[in-house]
Amino acid sequence: MVEEPTDPDVDLSVPAQRAERARVLWPVVTAVAIGAMCGSAARYGAALIWPTPVAGFPWTTLVVNVSGCALIGVFMVVITDVWTAHRLIRPFVGTGILGGFTTFSTYAVDIERLVDAGRARTGMAYLVVTLFAALAAVWTAVWVTRRVVAWRQS
Length: 154
Known about the structure:
mainly alpha; 5 helices
């Protein structure tokens, strides 16, 4: 049996402490859910505007994931280095909106569709390009945002 880490200040066998934990948790869950609805709707809109043909290269998913990763990089710098955000901003925007906007499950399905259509090389290229482009987008966005913040503060 694996022991999960627990908060030593909370005894969940005490009903009042369970209720307090739920009172603190539900606003976060709600913020994530509302943000995810917004982000998913934006991603769906992108797919409607720029549909991917059957067995075609999934440019929409690639652009959505890379741009979403860049936005996550900018957002994290802003809420950690620039201003102190309300406790629900990070779950709402970071986990909710940007987590709902980026779609790594569709990325996996796109790879499977390319391979099933006999385009395994394209699928593997897409796998690698998305991975490196997404990581590069986060890194670049963090780097540029920090430079802009430093420049504006000087």
